[in-house]
């Protein structure tokens, strides 16, 4: 006991050192054990193959960048841009609604119908000869000029012409068959210099122009059977009809000489 009393400190220190040595020896084993446990845990998570994301669709972005290279110009003068271009408003009819300036004038003029105007020459036959010579034989015709500018000239007009004779439309150049009863006549059209053959009781017909029906919807005005050269008053302005085609009418402003072509309105 005396020895323990004298050397207890050394004994305690020795025990502590032995414990530390044991702990130092145990520490690598513990680290290895923990590492194995971590490996076991991490191996429990299976890393699946991840499908790569599809490439981004940048077409809209590229299109926007291309538009930025050529930006549109501001067209404040065009219809619809009224911030810097105030417009007038007019009332449709007497008690109708107000409409903007863009909707009156030629923008509301509609071509509702276009019909062809013909030149017609009907050969009726030979009249009774007055003398014995062939030159004295006369031939009956009926001429209809639908394209004429005045109404009386548009009506069917009878004409009696001898060989070589001339009317306002044609020259009688010859006959086919016996002079007193020919099967047909040969005519030369004065305006076009074209030669045509018209059989007995037959009719030669050719389109010489067109007539158009127009309507100004804002004021419910109707312009029927208008011909080339006619004048129209629309929204206080005067326009001349300078051309009529089978599918459109061209008008010219009497003051500015600006021309506007209005197509034939499609029928539903």
**Roughly how many Å apart are the termini?**
131 Å
Give me the secondary-structure category.
alpha+beta
List segments where confidence is low: pLDDT < 50 over at least 5 consecutive residues: none
What strand order characterises the main sheet? 5-4-3-9-10
Order of helices and strands: HHEEEEEEEEEEEEEE
The tally of strands reads 14
Shape: rod-shaped
Number of helices: 2
Main β sheet profile: 5 strands, antiparallel
- Average pLDDT works out at 83
Radius of gyration: 52 Å
**Proportion of residues in helical segments:** 10-25%
- Sheet-strand content, in percent, reads 35-45%
How would you describe the overall organization of this protein?
By secondary structure, this protein is α+β, with helices and mostly antiparallel strands. Among the domains are: 115-208; 210-263, no CATH class. 20% of the residues lie in helices and 37% in strands. The chain has 2 helices and 14 strands. Strands 5-4-3-9-10 form a 5-stranded antiparallel β-sheet, with no helix packed on it. Strands 11-12-13-14 form a 4-stranded antiparallel β-sheet, with no helix packed on it. The longest helix has 42 residues, at 2-43. The model has no long low-confidence stretch (mean pLDDT 83).
Topology:
Elements: H1 2-43, H2 59-69, E1 89-91, E2 98-100, E3 109-126, E4 138-145, E5 157-162, E6 170-176, E7 184-189, E8 195-199, E9 203-216, E10 221-226, E11 231-234, E12 237-245, E13 248-253, E14 259-263
Antiparallel strand pairs: 1-2, 3-4, 3-9, 4-5, 6-7, 7-8, 9-10, 11-12, 12-13, 13-14
